[in-house]
Amino acid sequence: MAVKGRDIALRAASAVVLAPAAVAATWGGGVWFLALLIVASVVLAFEWAAMSAPHARRVMGGAVSFGVVAAVIPWNAPFMLATVKIAPGLCAGNTMVMKTAEDAPPSCFLVPRVLEDGTRNPFALQRLKDKLGDRSNASSEIELDGTWGSLVGEEGRGVRTIIDMVSATRLDCVLGSAGTMRAALTRAVHHTRHRRAFGALLVDQPLMRNVLTDLALESEAASLLGMRLAHAVDEGETELTRLGVAVGKYWVCKRTSPFVAEALECLGGNGYVEENGMARLYRQAPLNSIWEGSGNVNALDVLRAIGREPASLMALLKEASVARGRLTTLDTALDEVERDCAGLAALDGVEAATGARRLVERLALTLQGSLMVLHSPAELTEAFVESRLGGAKGGSFGTLDAGFVATAAPTAIERASVTA
Fold first, then answer.
1. φ and ψ of 196, to 5 deg
2. What are phi and psi of 14, to 5 degrees?
3. Each residue of 239-257: pLDDT tens digit?
4. Which residues partner with 94 through β-bridges?
């Protein structure tokens, strides 16, 4: 294929991962949601140098690679690329952010796998990565030599272009983590319903009911938040999604690792055996918290959004306040988080950054509490709000007040069960 436009030689070291995952959740015997998630992850790492190809000019590389799915590739403003160590996603093309000149802002480029004439865009596999988890989604390091790429968006606006994509895939991380929680919970409930110990089924043992109820509350709140954010994206509620997706990504993904660890314990040693499936979920659990910005990145992004786009904070607080007047504990928590947000202006940068995680956690919990009030059974809602926002809980799962276990356990465990 003839290459039109400017030829650019690039040498890069970067990585990209694309993970498709199917998430299914069944509540009360009905299919609650089924989502095919395509999650693209960003890894920062680069090294650029000019190559000696004709017409090449020295360029400096930008720091982001990102997996995308592209059925139709816009063949405008093409570039010739040569790189080292870039890991492709399982998709029709990858986008990369790089500088077209040493003193220029980075631009975004789409690198297709297959060219217009049907030939493959050239690359050579260097190695497959030995990852902690997510092994079915192989990650590799490849070398690009004379690979064709096309400019996406305006030249010099690459970071902005990538950030728009990252906002979408952060939602995928929320949904993927909620689905992982659900998968772990259903395994735990199924096991305890069929395993007897100390003269009774595990599911009927008081302390196990506390654990399962606590896990069920967490899973329901995560699913509600993920689906509300998905609806906001579908409906174009940009002010809510700007802040809400970052808040949800931080909290739901952060909660997945301890959640799966606790669910695994419900199975005892069986949960630590590979053929069970729980061990795989445990290895997978931390991944979405790393992809598209780790916890600190998301928490600081929330602070930036509050400072630069105050309308996004107003939209989030308005959404969380829909359920005001229903539970005193939730109302008190909303008052506190509103005061904390209003007090950000009086803090210096260090103080604000130091408290970012706590603020984001409170924003997430109040929003989850509000959604539970609107969409969940009253006994589950009260148990969630009082335990997460009212202090009626310890630091680990299975520390709910006995009264909440007695009232919420039957409904919570039944909704967490898989039925024919």
1. -100, 140
2. -155, 175
3. 999 999 999 999 999 999 9
4. 67, 111
Q: How many CA atoms lie within 13 A of 192 on its CB side?
A: 27
Distance CA 225, CA 233 (A): 12
Q: Is 130 exposed, middle or buried (0-12, 13-18, 19+ CB in 10 A)?
A: exposed
- Of 276, 283, 289, residue with least CA distance to 260: 283
How far is it, in rounded angstroms, from Cα 322 to Cα 373? Answer: 9
The Cα angle at residue 247 between residues 246 and 248, in degrees rounded to 5: 90
Q: Select from 121, 110, 18 the least CA-distant residue to 72.
A: 110
The token duo for 321 is 């306040």
What is the spatial distance between Cα 229 and Cα 39, in angstroms, rounded to a whole number?
16
pTM (two decimals): 0.77
Query: DSSP states of 295-364 as a string?
Result: HHHHHHHHHHHHHH-HHHHHHHHHHHGGGTTS-HHHHHHHHHHHHHHHGGGGS-HHHHHHTHHHHHHHHH
Q: Which residue in the block uniquely carries the two structure tokens 């993927």?
A: 176
- The larger pLDDT score, comparing residue 243 to residue 3, is at 243
Which residues touch 167 (CB under 8 Å, ≥6 apart)?
A: 241, 242, 245
**Which residue reads 């007897």 in tokens?**
196
